[in-house]
């Protein structure tokens, strides 16, 4: 699951909100770090790994407010991942992401 994934759907938000400030993505690094960005949220991830899942805590800002939470991502049979994403004392969402195939070539 290490790599960059494009968040393509969520149970709480529509696609316009997910891509509000740019493409909705989650990046899972091999160094216990990662990033997630969707809507107005941009956050760093502290990641731990198991054979078929990653677990993470996150914190940063959403619409200029400090926020934090936790979650996990699981690899599905179709090659996508399902992310359970929870705000501390707040909403919990289920996100689906596919491998990011976008090109950054000039």
User: Are there runs of 5+ residues with pLDDT below 50, and where?
Assistant: none
Q: What is the global morphology?
A: globular
Distance between the terminal alpha carbons, to the nearest Å?
Answer: 27 Å
Number of strands: 8
Strand arrangement, major sheet = 1-2-3-4-5-6-7-8
Biggest β-sheet description: 8 strands, antiparallel, barrel
Mean pLDDT across all residues, rounded? 92
The helix/strand order is EHEEEEEEE
Portion of residues within helices: under 10%
The DSSP helix count reads 1
Structural class call reads mainly beta
Determine Rg (CA atoms, Å).
13 Å
> Approximately what portion of the residues adopt beta-strand conformation?
over 45%
Give me the secondary-structure topology:
Elements lengths: L2 E8 L4 H4 L6 E4 L4 E6 L2 E9 L3 E10 L2 E11 L5 E7 L4 E8 L7
Antiparallel strand pairs: 1-2, 1-8, 2-3, 3-4, 4-5, 5-6, 6-7, 7-8
Overview of this structure, please?
With 106 residues, this protein is mainly β. The chain is built from one helix and eight strands; from the N terminus they run βαβββββββ. It has one helix at 15-18; strands at 3-10, 25-28, 33-38, 41-49, 53-62, 65-75, 81-87, 92-99.
Quickly list its features.
106 residues; 8-stranded antiparallel β-barrel; globular
Short structural summary:
By secondary structure, the chain is mainly β. The protein has 1 helix and 8 strands.
